[in-house]
Amino acid sequence: MDLKSQRRMAADIMDVGKDRVWMDPDQMEKIDEAITRKDIRNLVEGGAIQKKDVKGTSKGRARKNKKQKQKGRRKGHGSRKGPKTARKSEKDEWMNKIRALRSDLKEMRDNDELTQEQYRELYRKAKGGFFRNRKHLENYVENEVE
């Protein structure tokens, strides 16, 4: 049985591709006898010819990967694109660093480890980018400031 023309007409009537046309195997003789578009339309209404569902892309793998990323996995060097600043801006890095340094300086001043003059000097140095991190500030205070 060659049902090419019936498949083509059914696809056109249902407005789908030929691959999405399903024909009932039990009613093949009836489909073979259908030679006009009207016959095909009647078979579609009768359920002998139907359209298959669209195949989609599964989100299962994406969901699994998202869960892994929430746990902190899949974030190594091979997964990164763009520069370091694309993930965290230079401004954000600076804000985190300067806030930490300034809070340490205030703590030292309040605990009388620094005088007001020393505090001011170190505050300005921090603003100028002198200290790399908190540890650098602590070492500097231990070694340089009397």
Number of structurally distinct domains: 2
> Could you say what the CATH architecture of the largest domain is?
Orthogonal Bundle
Oligomer: single chain
Order of helices and strands: HEHHEHHHHH
What is the typical, i.e. mean, pLDDT? 95
Distance between the termini: 101 Å
- Work out the strand percent: under 5%
Q: How many extended strands?
A: 2
The CATH topology name of the largest domain reads Non-ribosomal Peptide Synthetase Peptidyl Carrier Protein, Chain A
How would you classify the helix and strand content by structural class?
A: mainly alpha
Integer-rounded radius of gyration: 36 Å
**Can you tell me the residue ranges where pLDDT is under 50 for at least 5 consecutive residues?**
none
CATH class of the largest domain: Mainly Alpha
How does the overall form come out from the CA principal axes?
rod-shaped
Helix content: 55-70%
Count, helices = 8
Main sheet: strands, sense, barrel = 2 strands, antiparallel
Strand order of the largest sheet: 1-2
